[in-house]
Predict the 3D structure of the following.
Amino acid sequence: MTRELVVVGHGMVGHRLVADLRARDSTGSWHVTILCEEPSPAYNRARMSSFFDGKSGEDLSLVDAEFLADPLVDLRVGTPATQIDRAARTVTIADGRIGYDALVLATGSRPFLPPVPGGDLPGCFAYRTLEDLEAIKAAAVAGRPGVVIGGGLLGLEAADALRLLGMRPHIVELASHLMPTQLDGTGAALLASLVEPLGLRLHCGTATRAIEPGPDGRVSVVVLADGTAIPTDLVVFSAGVRPRDELAAPAGLTVAGRGGVLVDDRCRTNDPRIWAIGECAAVDGRCYALVSPGYRMAEVVVSQLLGVGTPRFPGADLSTTLKLLGVEVASFGDAHATTDGALVLTYADNGTYAKLVLDSEARTLLGGILAGDASAYPLLHSLIGHQLPASPDHLLARSAGVNQVLAGRL
Amino acid sequence: MSGILVIGAGPAAHRFVARLRQHGHRGPVTVIGAEARPPYNRMLVPSVLSGSLTPNCIALPDLDARLRLGTSATRIDRERREVHADDGAVYRYDTLVLATGARPADQGSRDGVTPLRTLADCALVTGRRILVLGGGILGMQAALALCRRGHDVSVVHRHAVLMNRLLDAEAGRILASRLQDLGIRVYLGRTAARYRTGGVTLDDCTTVLTDRVLLCTGAVPNVELARQCGLTVDDGVVVDTHLRTDDPDIHAVGDCAQHDDQPGHLSRAWDQADALAAFLTVGHAGYRAGGRVTRLTGPGIDIASVGIPAPSTVDSAVEVVALTDPARDRYARLTLRDGRIAGAVLVGLPEAIATISQLYDRGEPAPSDRLGLLLGGPVTPTGPVELSDDAVVCVCNNVTKITLVRAWRGGAETVNDLATSTRATTGCGTCTSVVQGICSTLSAERQGA
């Protein structure tokens, strides 16, 4: 007998869950209804900036014809879920209700918009969806300044997008340096020295005090807490995300203290028929705004739906890399050396910075940061938790590329 | 023959005369020294202060020269090649060497305030509580010496970092915490604003109770004689690579001389004395300004500063390697230029201090295993490194190397095919170059087989 699975959200993680389930569900035991709020089905949000580099929305799409033609998948785009009735086991949409045997919430995140006066003026944008990107593209004026608020991974991506649109981007970051989650001060200083010559103007260690309109009522000036006034045509917010957990509480699902649908390490909510995965899920109270942990969660839930065991979420790998503006940055493992007794080894020259975090015996790699040249990242990432097979200098292969490192017998 | 006349009988003068004789100089040599005591190694004055050495232990060997101790030169007459002294005598010279040294920048002409430079100064350091003013190398040596002797010691340093000319902020921080562990109070970024009996008020109005203030606030070159007779004087007596003043018959060495490097270090005085002795006898060997190795040791303290600790400019030939080990208070910061040590700050790494000092002195290339160099560990092998089978190549999709290798052998021989069959590269795409590398390596391997 075919049972009904409803998946709320069709982002990268929601799509992965359905694709995995369909690939593994050889007997067709589940029919899946996907409720997709956005007008387009799932696309690769991790490569959105390529939208400004000649790629179309279709190029980024994760959905192929075979998936759309699958009789056991009912994909409804432009269809937000508005309510969950756990007693009746239904999800409410604009024109009715859909019953479920199992429900997976994969609603993702919404951009955090800091409460800045003027933050809702015309000319202010978020940087999250294809629609946001299209709006930014329409509003961009080549040769004019644009301000990105938030200097994290996404902020840099947004700044690069503005640059590709011919604008002169500024980045405003509250922390003392760029990418504070991933980088230390030295790595960020190197990153800054590499992106500034490309035309990015950086304003770190300062908050945005206000966004002021011009005579036409649109964004005109961004005023910083230090008094700097940046004339601008548009403002892009990339100051982090918040989990989309608004369906949970009204339905009696527990929400974590810091937001997100609370789930255990098997992604189960307090209702045995309902799971939450991806950025909306707070696994043991913690949300992960990266795609890789979301994929792990999807795998965990697919196994449970198919009754092939109840694997646990293995924990998140928060390693990240950035390659924008020709600049490479990577942060992996215990990049900030929070492990007791950890040693930190750093290398710097005028174009690269490498930081390796080692255990107290200087034998096992715990994590690190690479900036300027991240070619050693895949190798170093794979060595996290392992004894170093060679000296750090050699592993960093500072004069050789990754291919030499790979040249051993495979 | 009037021979060589040396004004000053400190370590630089002593070294110069000793080297002259070693080089076979037979002519007359006269040394005029203001201190009544025969030449001694001033570097070891802090050891006398601590009580670990007696004054006699630091005396330098007797010289084959006419010594006039307790005698100060009062005037140089370059025309007549004569030096007048306060003993009423006139000393003639063919070659004059100024080795007049330096004196404390602050002479401390107040009750309970003493500079530290000479052996005579040591005897004045009395009282239970002692405040050391100045956190340079001399101040640190004095503070550790006095702590060892059982005094209650405070250190006041105007800069935020102890030994700031020789160390960086991290090394200075570790040193300060070690001093505090020994019970020494450390006041950084502070100066003494007011002295009174029994205490000193700092510029932030803190009062430090003390019975005596020991001044270690640096030294100024003794240049009066040189200036008086018209030689070029800047901070010190200006000399060229042959330690010559602008009068070819007059040279200067040691703390009174100004070459284009930093004064105040005995090994520099020794190098200059050596160079001058060689120049005057065998006629070669110009003095080359170089960096030095400065080491500070004490209970739980082993710190070295090598060469120029922090480069002022960073260009493509410069590489900086740093090791921090907060749990064990070990720290190293190495600056390399073209693969050779240009400078280093080393804390708590005695083996590295020895090795790196030697590499620096000899100008030899540093080994490529920098971690091994710093930790004194074995040099790890440098053969080709391969990814282990369980290495995660695509982090987004959790695809391991072995998965890719199996898929390739299963017929997915391009990046696109591997993406379809394993999902590798379909997330953020960072791993594309590695997946490409695996494809090429496997193709090459098959063609080779």
In short: Residues 432-448 of chain B form the longest helix (17 residues).
